[in-house]
Automatic annotation (TrEMBL):
Cell location: Cell membrane
Descriptive protein name: MFS transporter
Residue intervals of the Major facilitator superfamily (MFS) profile domain: 48-446
Protein keywords: Membrane, Transmembrane, Transmembrane helix
GO cellular component labels: plasma membrane
Transmembrane parts of this sequence: 45-70, 82-104, 124-149, 176-197, 203-224, 264-286, 292-314, 326-344, 356-377, 389-415, 421-440
SUPFAM superfamilies reported for this sequence: MFS general substrate transporter
Molecular function terms, GO-annotated: transmembrane transporter activity
Length: 446
């Protein structure tokens, strides 16, 4: 859920300007602050976390990469823009529920901990969603399946990421973010490779990546310990209190707010760039959309090296040099350069080169920005789920709005069956670069 999102509102869930905190609230915040130094986590936690996030993205993003495009082409031939409506609707639903799910996770009290029950529940819903999409007889049912996918797999992913906020010390955040960033970027590539031979069978097309996701998330849930949460205190909140959890004072947490804005701009540009990937390649290469699965799979296989260099290089170096912002900016700049190259060329060699540059930028930005988020996340010990849910708006707003905007951009200056992919990619490039520039204003992290 993604991914995807994995990490969105229009007005209501956005940070609202509340009054400055009183002295008493600052005392409470200080008492609730997490330990200055969390203990290092072991290799078991790190590697099962990496595998679990790899599994979620394979199950969840593979449909976005190719499977949904094929189903839309089957159910509505010639109407590429429908894909944007479906993905936007799913992201809009998750956008409105993310903070609620985060607060619920924070307040869950079970012998299995706070996060694992949501991973299990989300995984079950995620599998159901894949079956619904595979067997959907209409666009309406296909859209409903995508909403379930966003909600189910997104719940798994968000609780995995909240777990890193609960457990990781500062010295390991870049390393783990680099590894998980690499894993989440290459997972859809492997998903496309696994399904390239079954594009004619909708059930296998969706379920093969889903089975991998279930297996890897199950490993984390069963083999990584989480403390019993039943003894933790829990305040009583009603509906009004819950709704207040959707808001926070940006002035109280300025660096968190700046990171939120930079992430929003980046993911808006990224979503504009990736929503119509299959249709874009088909248009530029003059082939049917069903024929680009192999091309995208081959390109993705080569792109593994670029993503590895960006995510692992940026993540590990940001820990070693104790600098985050410069790597976030570099990631945005690389992406913008690659998108512009793709926007103004049409031959396969240029598309491959541009895509590899974009992959390196995505890997670097997403990995280091995740570490930066953990550095500036407020109230980690008590409200990590809530603030991770609010952070999720920075990805789910773009995921809900950008596909709709992209569908409109494609029609600007276009004639007949032609779509304006050049303009779409230029706008996407400007947004990801701006996302990298914004984080330079963060003061508490270098």
């Amino acid at each position: 859920m993604t991914t995807p999102s994995n990490d969105d509102p229009l007005v209501t869930p956005l940070p609202s300007p509340l009054s400055a905190p009183a002295a008493d609230s600052l005392v409470v915040e200080e008492l609730a602050a997490p330990p200055a130094d969390l203990p290092d986590v072991g290799a078991r936690y790190i590697w099962f976390m990496v595998l679990a996030q790899f599994g979620v993205f394979m199950a969840f993003i593979t449909p976005l990469a190719i499977s949904l495009s094929i189903r839309v082409a089957d159910l509505a031939p010639g109407h590429d823009e429908v894909l944007g409506y479906i993905t936007g609707a799913g992201a809009l639903f998750v956008m409105l529920t993310a903070p609620f799910m985060g607060v619920w996770s924070d307040r869950t009290r079970t012998r299995f901990g706070r996060r694992r029950p949501f991973m299990v529940g989300g995984m079950v819903m995620g599998v159901v969603s894949l079956v619904v999409m595979a067997l959907a007889p209409s666009l309406l049912v296909l859209g409903a399946g995508w909403v379930l996918a966003q909600w189910g797999w997104g719940t798994v992913l968000s609780n995995l990421q909240i777990s890193t906020a609960d457990r990781l010390p500062e010295s390991q955040r870049g390393k783990v973010a680099g590894l998980t960033g690499f894993a989440t970027q290459v997972a859809p590539v492997f998903g496309v490779i696994l399904t390239v031979g079954v594009t004619g069978d909708p059930l296998l097309l969706f379920l093969i990546p889903g089975v991998v996701g279930v297996a890897l998330v199950t490993l984390f849930v069963t083999l990584v310990h989480e403390d019993d949460s039943r003894a933790l205190p829990r305040e009583r909140i009603g509906l009004t209190g819950l709704l207040k959890k959707y808001f926070y004072n940006p002035a109280q947490y300025p660096d968190f707010s700046i990171n939120w804005l930079g992430r929003f701009l980046f993911y808006f540009g990224l979503t504009l760039n990736t929503t119509f990937t299959a249709f874009f390649f088909a248009s530029r290469l003059g082939v049917a959309v069903t024929e680009v699965a192999g091309i995208i799979a081959a390109l993705g296989g080569v792109g593994v090296l670029a993503v590895t260099a960006g995510a692992l290089g940026g993540g590990f170096l940001s820990d070693r040099l104790r600098r985050r912002k410069i790597f976030v900016l570099l990631g945005g700049a690389l992406m913008a350069a690659g998108m512009l190259l793709m926007a103004f060329t049409g031959d396969l060699a240029s598309l491959i080169t541009g895509s590899l540059i974009v992959s390196a930028g995505i890997g670097m930005f997403s990995a280091v920005d995740q570490a930066l988020l953990l550095d500036v996340l407020p109230e980690k010990s008590t409200d990590a789920g809530r603030f991770m849910g609010i952070t999720g708006f920075a990805t789910s707003i773009p995921q809900s709005v950008a596909p709709l905007v992209a569908s409109g951009i494609l029609l600007l200056g276009a004639g007949g069956a032609e779509k304006n992919y050049t303009l779409l990619y230029v706008i996407a490039a400007a947004l990801v670069l701006l996302g990298g520039l914004v984080v330079l204003r963060i003061r508490s992290v270098r």
